[in-house]
């Protein structure tokens, strides 16, 4: 088992290495001049030369990549020997010439908003999804089941950028139950934080809980037809014990997988959610960086998001081993 | 008196039915499949005949109509429900006065075409890689499995946004004109690049379970080439899972296309597109809700219909389902 863990971790690190090389390579190998891209529309020849020098474009791409990777582990210094020398401590993901900030600082700055969205929304959608899935499965064929299935189907076919606007129109503009979405630190003003986060939480929860409700219902119904459930019933176990100890336990593995992957990709930046609600998180940082062609920030955000996805995958695999004895043996 | 010992002939003779006929008869008796199929066809048709509406209405989807806007109200449409009238069936766009109905039908055309082409490209790549991976196994399988793992580790929306300007500049350097002629191929490429692993995974699994079956062995014993085994023996048995994946992929790709355009990495104005309409409607959603609702609900109904239809196709093609 230990060997399996090590192999999976090494595999994950390798995948990240390749992702970073691809992201890095695409922007620097392709014919478009990265200095021109990084310099943007209001570019002066002096600025261009400065960027060209500090991006080290005169160097071969493998040297640039090696320095980038070295920067992650050891840190690096930009514009060495000039007045504008910039120290970038490890893990250094680069320096944005657009905002004159270190990429790591930008990421640190934006991470709390994304974390807030991801954790609040994931708790909500998991609870709603599991609850409605369990009720559906236990009350199969009743109107409750049909209604919850209908909502789930609608939720699975709706888009954040549409539902978000509808909910904002109803809950914020008309009823004024919630505040306009945004981000304040929960340590400064926890109530305002929750009021501003509530709309993204609800929107994401509505859309994503649909998948969990369907998975839970299907999984539970499948387990319910298993022989060991009949055995448990014949032994005289209470139905509460059967439903939660046996049926739900048997149906939970696919839900854990999907949950881990959803959470992982959301942590890397809830791109559309943050864009719709104009929340200053990692996704918004990335979309802004794309629109201003801020290469170091683009590379940093994509890489960080990939880290979250890979780590989520690893965690899902490990959790799987504990939940499913069959995986442990093979 | 003679005893008739002949067995009464059945009213209709029992015919052998192919899996395709079985599936078709199941689909035919499935009301959900019918309704969702009709909805899908309706939108496809709307997109296909959009130029006819342009003729009938003597309007182009890009034509500004300032006379339909109230200059004193911040150039919002005059009239109820976003300026609906006999001249403008679904109202007009705020600020520009472009006809919403025409933009809507032409948008259906753009959104559906991009999603369909992306589906075809992703399916071809996915099926080929799945076949190779599953049939040959070993090193080839390992290579493609790693490749899938890497592709799936990319934050797809984010990466798509980032890569779009880069790929665009490559195509432009290759001589394609700026704008949609470069943007749309890039979108198709990006959507297909992140879409094929799902198809490849399913095909690979099916091929692995099939390559040791007797009929493949028999063909092999007869001296069939590997290409014959893969394309003539195995592939024809895979059309059911492939069809189901395609049916369920199209709605995903439609929403990806709309999301990319919504985020600004998609179809460029003045070409109409549902994602673009939604994006354009954001500043006006509280003053002119119809303008948001039309593309939003259309996208919802289209995706819902596709999802339901895909589910019905899956049920119909599954020999185990007994409905």
Structural description of this entry:
The complex is a heterodimer of chains A (330) and B (323). Chain A is globular and about 80 Å long. Chain A contains 14 helices and four strands. The mean pLDDT of chain A is 83. By secondary structure, chain A is mainly alpha-helical. In chain A, strands 1-2 form a two-stranded antiparallel sheet. With 323 residues, chain B is an all-alpha fold. In chain B, 68% of the residues lie in helices and 1% in strands. Chain B is built from 13 helices and two strands; from the N terminus they run αααββαααααααααα. A two-stranded antiparallel ribbon of chain B has the order 1-2. In chain B, helix 3 (50-57) runs antiparallel to helix 5 and helix 12 (274-281) packs antiparallel against helix 13 (289-317). The model of chain B has no long low-confidence stretch (mean pLDDT 83).
Structural classification of chain B: mainly alpha
Rg on CA atoms of chain A, Å: 24 Å
State which percent range the strand residues of chain B make up.
under 5%
Structure annotation, total helices of chain B:
13
Oligomer: heterodimer
Strand order, largest beta sheet of chain A: 1-2
Residue windows where pLDDT falls under 50 for at least 5 positions of chain A? none
Q: State the end-to-end distance of chain B.
A: 47 Å
Report the order of strands and helices of chain A: HHHHEEEEHHHHHHHHHH
Strand content of chain A: under 5%
**Relative helix content of chain B:** 55-70%
Give the mean pLDDT of chain B: 83
Mean pLDDT of chain A: 83
């Amino acid at each position: 088992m230990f060997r399996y863990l090590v192999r999976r971790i090494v595999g994950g690190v390798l995948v990240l290495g390749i992702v970073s090389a691809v992201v890095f390579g695409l922007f620097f190998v392709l014919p478009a001049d990265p200095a021109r891209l990084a310099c943007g529309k209001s570019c002066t020849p002096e600025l261009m030369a400065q960027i060209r020098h500090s991006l080290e474009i005169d160097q071969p791409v493998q040297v640039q990549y090696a320095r980038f990777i070295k920067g992650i582990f050891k840190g690096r210094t930009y514009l060495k020997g000039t007045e504008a020398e910039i120290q970038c401590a490890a893990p250094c993901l680069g320096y944005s010439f657009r905002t004159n900030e270190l990429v790591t600082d930008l990421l640190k700055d934006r991470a709390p908003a994304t974390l807030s969205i991801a954790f609040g929304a994931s708790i909500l959608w998991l609870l709603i999804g599991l609850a409605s899935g369990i009720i559906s499965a236990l009350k199969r064929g009743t109107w409750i089941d049909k209604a919850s299935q209908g909502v789930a189907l609608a939720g699975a076919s709706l888009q954040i950028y549409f539902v978000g606007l509808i909910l904002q129109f109803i809950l914020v503009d008309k009823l004024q139950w919630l505040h306009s979405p945004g981000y304040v630190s929960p340590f400064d003003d926890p109530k305002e934080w929750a009021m501003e986060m509530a709309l993204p939480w609800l929107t994401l929860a509505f859309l994503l809980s649909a998948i969990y409700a369907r998975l839970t219902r299907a999984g539970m119904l499948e387990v319910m037809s298993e022989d060991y459930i009949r055995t448990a019933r014949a032994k005289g176990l209470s139905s509460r014990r059967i439903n939660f100890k046996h049926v739900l336990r048997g149906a939970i593995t696919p839900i854990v997988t999907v949950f881990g992957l959803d959470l992982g990709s959301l942590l890397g930046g809830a791109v559309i959610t943050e864009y719709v609600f104009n929340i200053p998180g990692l996704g918004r940082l990335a979309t802004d960086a794309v629109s201003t062609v801020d290469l170091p920030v683009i590379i940093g955000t994509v890489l960080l998001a990939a880290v979250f996805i890979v780590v989520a995958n690893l965690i899902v695999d490990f959790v799987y081993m504990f939940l499913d004895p069959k995986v442990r043996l093979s | 008196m003679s005893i008739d010992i002949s067995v009464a002939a059945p009213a209709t003779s029992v015919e052998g039915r192919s899996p395709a006929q079985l599936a078709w008869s199941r689909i035919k008796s499935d009301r959900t499949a019918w309704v969702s199929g009709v909805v899908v066809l309706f939108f496809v048709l709307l997109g296909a005949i959009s130029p006819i509406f342009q003729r009938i209405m003597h309007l182009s989807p890009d034509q500004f109509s300032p006379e339909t806007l109230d200059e004193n109200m911040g150039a919002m449409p005059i009239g109820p429900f976003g300026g609906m009238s006999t001249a403008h069936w679904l109202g007009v766009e705020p600020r520009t006065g472009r006809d919403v109905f025409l933009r809507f039908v032409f948008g259906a055309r753009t959104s559906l075409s991009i999603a369909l082409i992306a589906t075809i490209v992703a399916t071809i790549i996915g099926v080929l890689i799945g076949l190779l991976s599953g049939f040959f196994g070993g090193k080839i399988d390992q290579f493609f499995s790693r490749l899938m793992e890497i592709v799936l580790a990319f934050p797809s929306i984010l990466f798509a946004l980032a890569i779009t300007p880069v790929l665009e500049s490559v195509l432009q350097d290759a001589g394609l004109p700026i704008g949609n002629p470069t943007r749309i191929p890039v979108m198709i490429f990006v959507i297909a690049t992140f879409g094929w692993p799902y198809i490849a995974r399913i095909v690979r699994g099916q091929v692995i379970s099939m390559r040791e079956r007797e009929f493949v062995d028999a063909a092999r014993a007869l001296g069939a080439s590997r290409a014959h085994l893969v394309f003539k023996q195995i592939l024809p048995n895979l059309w059911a899972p492939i069809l189901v994946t395609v049916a369920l992929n199209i709605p995903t790709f439609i929403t990806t296309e709309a999301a990319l355009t919504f985020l600004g990495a998609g179809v460029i104005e003045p070409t109409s597109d549902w994602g673009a309409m939604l994006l354009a409607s954001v500043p006006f959603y509280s003053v002119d809700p119809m303008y948001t609702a039309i593309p939003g609900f259309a996208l919802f109904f289209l995706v819902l219909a596709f999802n339901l239809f895909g589910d019905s196709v899956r049920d119909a093609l599954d020999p185990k389902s007994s409905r």
